[in-house]
Design goal:
mainly alpha; 4 strands; 243 residues; Creatine Kinase, Chain A, domain 2; 4-stranded mixed β-sheet
Amino acid sequence: GQMEINFLHGDPLGLADKVFFFKRTLREAALKHDMYATFMAKPMAGEPGSAMHVHQSVVDAKSGLNIFSNVDGSASSLFKHYIGGLQRYMPSAMAIVAPYVNSYRRIVRHTAAPINIQWGLDNRTVGFRVPESGVQDRRVENRIIGADANPYLALAVTLACGYLGMTEQLEPTPMMEGSAYDQEFELPQGLPEALQTLRAEDKLRTVLGERFIDVYAAIKDLEHREFMTVISPWEREHLLLHV
């Protein structure tokens, strides 16, 4: 079976700690009951994958107010710029939030996972959903991140994308009405493509650290090369006697 686990909002570093310890604890508890708990993005064919949806808002350090809302309760320009940053930079961050070859098996049409960077109000087909909420609870949900992502890196990179959007005053696309599955793919569809776009994005390299990006990408290159040495059952079934 598949279960949804929710964490209360809080400081990103503290939440990353909670996610990390929860995953380890759950796996150990399952083993003690002769079961396996997995956080693979797509553990079973024909079933929805597992995501790590991250709801984000930014609070003013002095006033404690949500900067995504104006005094009159309307959405602030910073909120729109934050969404614009997610749209602009998340495709380049895909290798961090979808870190394994299996991660991309989740990113397919009509499987409760986004295939593009559209955004919408309470729309669960888009990459960035704005839930119905009160003025001080205004937030955006990043639905692209997989359950297999490192929580520390995933939270850091999605905040980095929003930060760049605010500092560069990026405007989002028009809000998506209806199903985003009718739109084209706007996200990398495999790890090699994701790593190429990550290396090429200078702004993310600056915010996250060039040495970190270089080392991370090099490790993921090695993982992919190892994966390519394995012949899958699908290849044997469909190609062995047919080519």
